[in-house]
């Protein structure tokens, strides 16, 4: 009888409460995880901010509860410095999250654990203080998260902030193939603020998390995953690639943007592997000069292209208007859209390569689609991902530090039809097969559910 009483609370505690960070690259993997946990028999409540709130109508079987935060302008402005924005979001959401979670815990006895985005250090601490087990979902790669955990050591060894330019190309001990220049950095952000943010994230995970979830898989990051488990002494579950595991709505449906689906018919009219798909994700912005060199480079390459030019993604005069004087060839060969149904585009046989900023979602999506990539990292973890694309997995080429039209045209032709491009395409094909095998097995998700039920 005693045993039954001891077991009883576990038998009824079977709800998971999720708290995503309100940005595209974070909402999608969290909602994919939500659908996967629901499909495995767990009840799911999504706590969310009013800012960039997800659409509950797209997830009829999940419960949604807003935390009704009141945020300062710097937390929500697209012009805000990213580190300042993350700090403001954390401090502005801490109390509303704590109150919403406390109310939920009073209302429901079935909560097994909370999963918060790994950037929500304040929510990690708040959930821990309420005594409920909490897991952190990292939406970046294991390599990136590992490099953040190593930051204090790297700082002591003089790698961050970088003191001497000439160390840029030096390999970072314990983090190879990363060089000093590949370590996460955010131009324009205060280095101390960035370091402070990283330290808070790492401290919160160490102090409060009963485990870490990563949107990655063993075939691409086994040593990096092992290093994280060793460093944190808690389980790390590589539950990715989530967009492929997810049985629910198509991941594009999680979007904050409306995809222009007409580009799929445009792709239909092209031969296999003839089109370059160009997208720099949902956040990155480029200077007007870079944008123009990209346009002229695409024009000079002679390659058909589908280019996502997100409104507001170009800094400086002329906004996101195409440069004057581009020839008719450019306009008839290319299609420009404000937002694409990326997963369907990458899966389309007409797409021959993917020019990407190497956000982690886009990188994983490219890997799983088996397309070679042209890497143009802009900030944050994109440099880490780009280095893995080009130097660990061999599935892509760098555009290069300086974006000029002649170089762009040459790299585009190289990835579409050159020898290096062919090698990357073959490696991409192999990696896609490994991803397919991992999706078919999905051990990590089963292990995660068992772990959640044991908490
Ligand atoms: N995306 C999309 N259509 C676009 C551009 C991007 O659906 O035109 C999606 C893409 O599939 C990915 C996400 O937006 O899932 C971007 O996330 P990522 O981590 O690559 O970059 P971030 O936007 O966070 O920099």
Automatic annotation (TrEMBL):
Domain of life assignment: Eukaryota
Gene Ontology MF annotations: quercetin 3-O-glucosyltransferase activity; quercetin 7-O-glucosyltransferase activity
Keyword Nucleotide-binding set for record: no
Keywords on record: Transferase
Family stated for the protein in its record: Belongs to the UDP-glycosyltransferase family.
Protein name: Glycosyltransferase
Organism: Aegilops tauschii subsp. strangulata (Goatgrass)
